[in-house]
Design brief:
This protein is α/β, with parallel strands linked by helices. It starts with a strand and ends with a helix. It is built from 8 helices and 10 strands.
Length: 264
């Protein structure tokens, strides 16, 4: 294997391990109006490309059964980190080691085909996660019951509200008994009843030994649900520790930044 690796391994206690991980994107350093213009100028060697590191020198270890919160401002690299753990992408440098089946809910409705019905999308998502049709048939009633979508299950997903898509996405992702559950802003969409059900199900998963990574801008949720928190900023880990310790430091930093902006 090269310097950058993304594998599935056995480990003692650890189910996720990132060692000196970096993700680099090559981006144009000047504005190009159209894709056609970009191709022409790239072919002519007139496009200057620069490096943008979405993540750099990230070291992180997560144990089996741990519920860990991932916080930081927009653009900090949180989504990139989740994609590495979900095996959606590979690192540019370093190693990403993951043990077990991962169920990523990186975006509500992600993986849903808008022209397919809710029923069809349940089986499509199951197939993408490696489940056979008869296995998903056994799970079907429980998924729809949790999502409270019996009335709309044969309606194309394009006609769903964001809350309906949220309920269906969460119900599918959490009904397959994954070893690792990745939830990106899981409580940002949906009514209060759905949020309570989501929190209750996550608590059930934690007691069953599943590892959960929760991304949220709601610090109270991080404090309530997570034992540890990771603070990402500009692609690097700024702090790892107990949730109260990290959240307090993050809030203090945000208040300091807001105060400086007001003075300017």
């Amino acid at each position: 294997m090269g310097a950058a690796e993304s594998l599935v391994v056995e480990s003692n206690g650890e189910v996720i391990l990132l060692e000196d991980v970096g993700v680099r994107y090559r981006i144009a350093s000047e504005r190009v109006i159209t894709f056609k213009e970009y191709l022409i100028r790239r072919f002519q060697g007139k496009i200057a490309l620069g490096d943008f590191w979405a993540l750099r020198q990230v070291d992180l270890s997560i144990n089996k059964g741990e519920m860990i919160g991932l916080i930081g401002p927009n653009g900090a690299g949180k989504s990139t980190l989740l994609k590495l753990i979900a095996r959606v992408m590979r690192p540019t440098e370093g190693r990403v080691l993951v043990k077990g089946m991962v169920a990523p809910l990186l975006e509500f409705g992600a993986g849903f085909h808008p022209d397919l019905t809710g029923r069809e999308n349940i089986f499509l998502n199951g197939a993408l996660l490696g489940f056979k049709s008869d296995e998903m048939q056994e799970k079907f009633d429980h998924i729809v019951e949790f999502a409270e979508l019996w009335e709309f299950i044969d309606v194309p997903v394009r006609n769903y509200s964001s809350g309906m898509a949220a309920r269906l996405g969460f119900a599918v992702a959490t009904d397959i008994d994954p070893d690792i559950l990745i939830l990106d802003e899981v409580l940002s969409v949906g009514d209060e009843s759905f949020q309570r059900k989501s929190l209750s199900r996550m608590e059930e998963f934690r007691h069953q030994g599943a590892t959960i990574i929760l991304v949220s801008h709601d610090m109270d949720t991080i404090l309530e649900m997570c034992q540890r928190a990771v603070w990402l900023d500009h692609g690097q880990i700024k702090m790892i520790g107990s949730s109260p310790e990290v959240v307090d430091a993050y809030r203090e930093d945000q208040e300091s930044s807001d105060g400086a902006a007001d003075e300017a």
